[in-house]
Each structure stands twice: as structure tokens, then as C-alpha cells.
Amino acid sequence: MKKWILMIVAIFLLCSGTIWFIQGHYFQVEPFSEEEAIRHIETIYKGQVSQVKKQGNTFEIQFTRQNVKYTAIIDAMTQQVSDLTMKEGQSKLLLTEHQIRQMFKKEYGDVESVMLSETIYTVRVEKEHKQKEITVDGYSGDVLAEKDVKLLDQPVENHIITEQQAIDIALQQLKGEVDSVDFEETTDGGYYLVEIETQHDEATFQIHAVSGKVLSVSWDD
Q1: Cα 70–75–81 angle (5° rounding)?
Q2: Which of the residues 17, 39, 60, 111 has the least number of beta carbons within 10 Å of its own beta carbon?
Q3: In the prediction, which pLDDT does 110 show?
Q4: Cα(157)–Cα(123) distance, rounded to whole angstroms?
Q5: For residue 91, what pLDDT is reported?
Q6: Predicted pLDDT at 29
Q7: Helix residue spans in 125-202 (DSSP H)
């Protein structure tokens, strides 16, 4: 009886050793290199890696996806992401028209016009007797596209809304007391800056003087 038990144990150990040998030599996963870890993160998260740190058998990888920064911890041996945290996101407030103009003034000089559609600015500039229309991300200020445009033979007449209309538009966004109203002239009709104050908040609304569209909102802490 003991002999049969010893034979069974021996066969079990032999089989276990054989399986371990096969796994170790034929199925062992090679650890990630830094380049492979970066490619893996960019593939699965569709982001752009900005920084990599190696700590033992793990990589700490920082990447950006849709204007939000993340940090991922990936095990080089198992090739698995063990932790993913969001570091910081893009500001919720759009860049103002003034900020956009200052950005392009450095390269192009005078900016012909700036128009906002949802979260995208369209900037028209002139350089070397040619006009360009530049599409810009309203949050980051990144240039999304550029194209040459032809000058119009006759300018389009713009009808400017009144100061009271601008105030009414701002009050639709935030109920409160009107603290001040300023008008800034631009080549595309100008805009109003309407400051509204409540018991708890104070905000300045940038309102396009032709379309009446709210271009941006700045909150005072």
C-alpha cells in the first residue's frame, strides 16, 4: 500500500515539474520595456504620454487624454495596469477673446476678428498681405486648423445690440445686481463686459455686441 502511495506522489511531482518547466520556458511573458509600456498605455487609453518613471518592476506613466492628466502604474512583469488616477483637468472656463487676441498678436500683429462657436474660436489674421482663418480650441488655445481666405469686396454691416440688451442677457445667466457695464470695440462688432454681483457670487459676462452670444464667464473668488 505504501509503495502505491509513493508511486502516486512521485508521478505527481514529476508531472508538476514537467508543467513548471514547460511554462517557464515556453509561456513565460517577457517584462515590458519602457517603450513597450508607453505604447501599451497610449494604445489602451488613447492618450499622449508626457513622463515615465521606473520604480523596480513598475512604471509610473503620466499621460494626457482629452485635456485631463492621468497617472498610470503598470507592472512590467505582468503587463497589467495596477492603478490609474486622475491628476488634474482643464479649466472649465473658456479663454476670453482678449486672451485669444494676445496669443495671435505676437505672431501676426493685428487680429482682424475673433468669433466663438460653442467651445471653438475662429480667428482671422492677416500676414504678408494674406488673410488666414485659424480654428482654436477655446479651453487650451491649441490651433486645430488653418486655411487661407479671400478678402470680401464689401464689408458686412453689423447691427450692435444696446447696453440694456446686453444686461438682460447677462441677467438671464445670473440673477443679481448689475455692478458695471463696459464696451470694447473690435473689428467684428465689439463686445460688452457685464459684471453681475449676488450675495455669494460675482461674475463678469463677455457678450458679443452683434450676435448677443455669451462668449465667456469669469467668476471672482
Answers
A1: 45
A2: 17
A3: 77
A4: 19
A5: 46
A6: 58
A7: 163-173
Quote the pTM value: 0.32
Cell numbers representing residue 221 in the block = 473668488
Q: Which amino acid is at 168?
A: D
Q: Which 8-state DSSP code applies to residue 129?
A: T
The three cell numbers of residue 209 are 455686441
Determine the Cα–Cα distance for residues 64 and 206; give it in Å rounded to an integer. Answer: 30
Cell of 92: 472649465
CA distance 65 to 192: 34
Cα angle 55, 57, 61 (rounded to 5 degrees) comes to 55
Q: Cell numbers for 33, please give them.
A: 520595456
Residues 121 and 115 sit within 8 Å (Cβ to Cβ): yes
Please, are residues 178 and 171 in contact by the beta-carbon 8 Å criterion? yes
- Residue 130 C-alpha cell reads as 494674406
Tell me the C-alpha distance between 62 and 60, whole Å: 7
* Alpha-carbon distances of 194 from 32, 109, 118, 171, 202, rounded to whole Å: 56, 28, 20, 9, 11
Contact call for residues 213 and 97 (beta carbons, < 8 A): no
Ordered domains of the chain (ranges, CATH)? 31-89 (3.10.450.630), 97-149 (3.10.450.40), 163-219 (3.10.450.40)
* Total residues found in the chain within this entry: 221
DSSP conformational letter for 201 = -
Regions of the chain where pLDDT drops below 70: 1-29, 66, 86-93, 150-158, 221
Residue-wise pLDDT tens digits, 181-197? 999 988 888 999 999 98
Q: Label residue 21 exposed, middle or buried (CB < 10 Å: 0-12, 13-18, 19+).
A: exposed
